Amino acid sequence: MIVTCEPAGAADIDPQAVLAPLTGAAIFLVAVVTEDTGSADVVRGVCGDLAGLVRGVNQRDPESHLTCVTGIGDRLWDTLAGGPRPAGLHVFSEIEAGGRRAVSTPGDLLFHIRSARMDMCFELARVLMNRLRGVVRIVDEVHGFKYFGNRDLIGFVDGTENPTDNAAVRAALIGDEDPDFACGSYVIVQKYLHDLPGWDAQPVEQQERIIGREKLSDTELLDDVKPSFAHNALTQIVDDNGDQVQILRDNMPFGAPGIDEFGTYFIGYARSPGTTEQMLRNMFIGLPEGNYDRLLDFSTAVTGTLFFVPSATMLESLGDGPLDDSTDTADAPSTTAAATGSLEIGSLRGASPDE
After folding, report:
1. Which domain holds residue 120?
2. What is d(CA 355, CA 73) in angstroms, rounded to the nearest whole number?
3. CA distance 109 to 104
4. CA Rg, the chain, in Å?
5. Are strands 185-194 and 305-309 parallel, antiparallel or unpaired?
6. Candidates 158, 250, 293, 354; catalytic one
7. Does the residue 209 lie in any domain?
8. How many domains does the chain have?
């Protein structure tokens, strides 16, 4: 597949592995960076070396398709990168309606590690944590697995409507609309826990009405029988021209039967976070208001964070220091932070609702 996300006339820009195919295993690491002087410098070094770290582990089994996508949160961006800001980067906004809540939780860094083999994911996660030990605190770690032909733990195929090829590029990668950040992406992650006994108690026909697809065949229900509250109805977004606007999902089941933990890790890449945010508003608030996603009667979001995913080219350049600042100096991060590598998080906390 040819990826064409850079603005016309720009130098070649390589995206991160946002468009990598679904794999059999994944590890999701969400981290908060410490306040210690020099923390940002260590994180920049890992960003610059990431491609080499992936290649080093991948040599153990080149056919395992090991990849790692790194996202940077709103709180960390200015100190880590400096320069202009991605147009859509902000703290994930909590959504609450009728007792349903899409929470907003902290996160400075996301590492989305994928492979056909869990041991390869584990080894890369171990290597990354060795480099970042004492510099970050892991606030969420999820090990996902492929479950019976890409089904989630509620028994339905997940990701059926994912765009492919050029449609995936258009859905997930930034283009001319924000040329400084071309070939980047935005990603929203949420960890959902399921009331599996409650869900399994529902008749299959009711489950199919809630999802909007047949459970066994994965066939979409016809419009004349699909309820307006169906999950796939509320998550279909159209623009002012009536064209569908898509995102790229790479959700993974996870669980621990011994403690009755069953879940889905939602991860959605998009060229604008507004698309995913509208989907979530439709689900939690309803369209119209009150016509909410009935899947939320059985699934609870316990995390929620938004990250910007720079291009691989930009991520590697962070290893050389903050990006060139082309904005007005009044909008730039402090010179003390840039010089010392301190995050100056104390000064950021008052402006960040996810603290």
Report:
1. 20-320
2. 13
3. 15
4. 20
5. antiparallel
6. 158
7. yes
8. 1
> In this structure, what DSSP letter does residue 220 have?
B
Is 158 assigned a catalytic role? Answer: yes
Q: pTM score, two decimals? A: 0.90
In our burial notation (b when 16+ CB lie closer than 10 A, e otherwise), range 108-120 reads bbbbbbbbbbbeb
Phi-psi region at 21: left, alpha or beta (left = phi > 0; alpha = psi -120 to 50): beta
Q: Are 75 and 92 in contact (CB under 8 A)?
A: no
The candidate with the shortest Cα–Cα distance to 344, out of 332, 326, 327, is: 332
Q: How far is the CA of 170 from the CAs of 4, 8, 93, 246, in angstroms?
A: 9, 15, 25, 8
81-95 as b/e, with b when 16 or more CB fall inside 10 Å?
bbbbbbebbebbeeb
6 lies in some domain: no
Alpha-carbon distance of 279 to 65, in angstroms, equals 30
CB 304 within 8 A of CB 92: yes
Specify if 339 maps to a domain. no
Mean pLDDT by 10 residues, the chain (355 residues): 57 92 96 94 97 98 97 96 94 98 98 98 98 98 96 95 95 96 98 98 98 97 96 96 96 97 98 98 98 98 98 96 57 39 39 36
DSSP secondary structure of 275-295: HHHHHHHHHHTTTTTT---GG
Residue 27 lies in a domain: yes
Residue in the block written with tokens 């990849």: 67
Cβ(344)–Cβ(334) below 8 Å:
yes
State both tokens at 147: 């479950």
| DSSP string for residues in 124-193 | HHHHHHHHHTTTEEEEEEEEEE--TTTB-TTSSBS-TT---HHHHHHHHS--TTSGGGTT-EEEEEEEEE
* Structural tokens at position 185: 């992406």
